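FIELD: query
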Amino acid sequence: MLRQKYQFKNYNWTLVAAVLILCALSVVFINSADSSYTSRQFLGILFCTAVMFFLSLINYNFICDYSRIFYIVNLILLLLVEFVGSSAGGAKRWLNLGFTRIQPSELTKIFMIIVVAVYIQEHEEDFNEWKNLVKLAVLCAVPIILVLIEPNLSTTIDITVILLAVIFVGGLNMKLVRRCIIIGVPLFALFIWYIQTPNQILLQPYQVTRIMTFLNPSEYADTTAYQQQNSEMAIGSGQLYGKGLNNNTISEVTVTDTGLVSEQQTDFIFSVIGEEAGFIGSVIVIALLAIIVIQCLVIAQRAKNMSGRLIATGVAAWIGFQSFINIGVATNFLPNTGLTLPFVSYGLTSLLSCMTGIGLVLNIGLQRHY
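FIELD: result
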């Protein structure tokens, strides 16, 4: 498959440039947040960039042929987390390989995009038949449930939204979509009411607290709302141009210096960007993420078959939705979650899965039908 002939004039260098610039910025901002992670992030970027370029030259149809194997491998990894996984912060989400840790739930995103894309292509003519929709629901439900029980609600929601986007673009009947919306809205309202009742069993106590903190921030101002409020304050304090990287002057001390926002190198990296690079730096990062999403959608539109269209769409939904959630949390617009900012936050498994997705999208772009 490496002998596949491509027209390299179709290689999407705009997409590559946006990804690599974000990766370069990630090293800068992670170094500012916590320099102990800088070297690992830099080495991770070198390795993941090599993976991206390598996969961009492999026929994505060849990779799709192994979708069933990917599905089985994904389930094995998620099951291993349950039995031999390592814990942190009250959740068991990682596998310790000795030299590093991997988070299988992050790999689930790209694995399931491929699996669902192939399934829809195989059932392109009869996709909306109930038996095929039920099979797809079961196919998706198994890994999603395994992620949910880690527990990892934020990644569960993330994967669900990504797969729903793929399924929608795959040709889901609009009547069914309308019915789901009509049923889903009151069910969501019922869910919000239920989780506030004593002895509810759907969510962990800390998950309920995060939701209630968002709905009633004044009641949690000195406890769980503290981190997001400090993040919001940090972003606002950066004003137009920011305070500068690693600024330690007394007059312009940063939240990074005082440690008022925890996990800045991962979930709250945007607070570092807003405070130290200001509004302009924040807009640049958001613009680069938007370019990546747009280029993925352009490639999806030009894909030569259904699986290529759906993989590129899935990656676009992934980058777009996860960026929206991460930035929304950092700006106190959404409830606190544990999702990274793609290509920017520290997290080598997250970076690897994102770069794998971009590599596949680049190959889809090389095989466009016009």
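FIELD: remark
The longest helix spans residues 269-302.
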